[in-house]
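During the first year of the project, the team set up a workflow for recording each protein of interest as an amino acid sequence followed immediately by a discrete structure-token representation. This format lets reviewers and collaborators read both layers of information side by side without switching files. As required by the reporting guidelines, we include two representative entries from the current panel. The first entry is reproduced here exactly as it appears in our internal archive.
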Amino acid sequence: MEDRKIKPKPFRNSLSTLAQLALQEAGAIGYAIFKRLPNSTDILRQDASGVAIDEAAVRQGAAGVLLWPLGADGILAFVFSDESNARRAQPQLDRIAKAIDSVWSAAHAAARYSDLANQVADLEASLMDSRIADRARGFIGNREHADALDAIARHVETVLRPASTAQVLEQRSRDLEEEVEERRLTKRAKTILQNVHGMSEEQAHAHLRQISRKTRRKLKDVAVDLIAGNKTNSLTHAD
């Protein structure tokens, strides 16, 4: 039986990273993101780091724990060593909590996109099925149409041509795959610049952008060259 790949939940990476950054900058000792279960009062911890925050602390509003709602079904929680530290950090955390709430909502929208794409595919399939069956049904018992088989064959070919919606989705998919690949390669190139040349992440990003503008080449191509050059240097030093 073929193993199925489990897709990560949308935006889990950015939700976790934003929360960890807030944890660091605000001096919190732990965070957690909870999701309210549908048709229930129960909540389920989705992500956490540092000192554990359990469901009871969220429900009861424990001392040193700050809470923010995420959309209609999420809760963001940070815990501090004492209440005074929590009060001092709250204004700072309000801003990042708003950003995390926006990402949480975007994650729900991404799931909705998937549902809509499936719905469109089902509706188009149903429409094509109906057009083929209705036309074929019109030929049954009709002896006046001499080339019924050829006519219905042509009709089937016409109906089953790639739908305009599918073409749009396929092009969008290719564009996004290109962007994802560019970001992956750019990230690798920035890591090389940080590790080998001691640049910060911002400096590495600006360096790649500058080369891209000067050479009028895509950022992805610049990153590929840098990665290839680093491999060559590694092999040379190993000899």
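The second entry, processed by the same pipeline in the following quarter, appears below.
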Amino acid sequence: MKSLNPGYKLLTLIIASLLLSVTFHIRLNLIIAAGCLLVTFCTPGVNRRRLLLGLLPFFLAALGMFTAGLYFGADGGNQGVEVTMFGQRTLYASNLTTALQLSSRILAYGGLGMLYAFTSNAFELVMSLMQQFHLPPKFAYGILAAYHFFPVVREEYGIVGAALKARGVKAGPVSTKRLFPMLVQAMERSESLAMAMESRGFQDDAPRATAFRTRVRPADFCFLFGLNGLITAGLLFL
């Protein structure tokens, strides 16, 4: 999975999410969720502990939706049907079917998201968006700068907290005494970064070299058409 082009991988999973959104299909949602998690878990180099921790919010949300669908239906327990574009009948009521429909969809989306998040590199994604999808460089480098700026903000937050503690000043996690100096330092670093880019001749329309090129291989198209073809077949025949 890590060898696939990240831009085409993102496109594939977006299309897969749109296909799953047109109907409530319990078995297909569970198959997609289980398959994505299995592939992610078996991919070499994936931090499995972080994967399990990242899945925790999805499981909690699925549990909440399951409870809401089971006990708090809008129709007061009366069942109804809805015909989707694939001709499937979807129950909507405060019953077990509705609860499974709602919770399984969350698990399917969570599986697709975890599959991409743990098998893709942010820098390679931006390079792919520039080279294959013609994203303007000013947006691409802005995305990269914002992505790499989060650790800087976290570091500044810790430094300010340590400085306040050394002075004997009590400040909570969201106190303005802690947040305001952190934001000032972050703005100063962002201005320094902008000046550094300008001093190195960064211009949006200027020709430039790239650190590396992302390739589009037959495996990317196989993944694009294979996954979405399987989902479409599942919507029609399961």
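For the second entry, the following points were noted during internal review. The chain has eight helices and two strands. The beta strands are 81-83, 89-91. Both points are flagged for discussion at the upcoming steering committee meeting.
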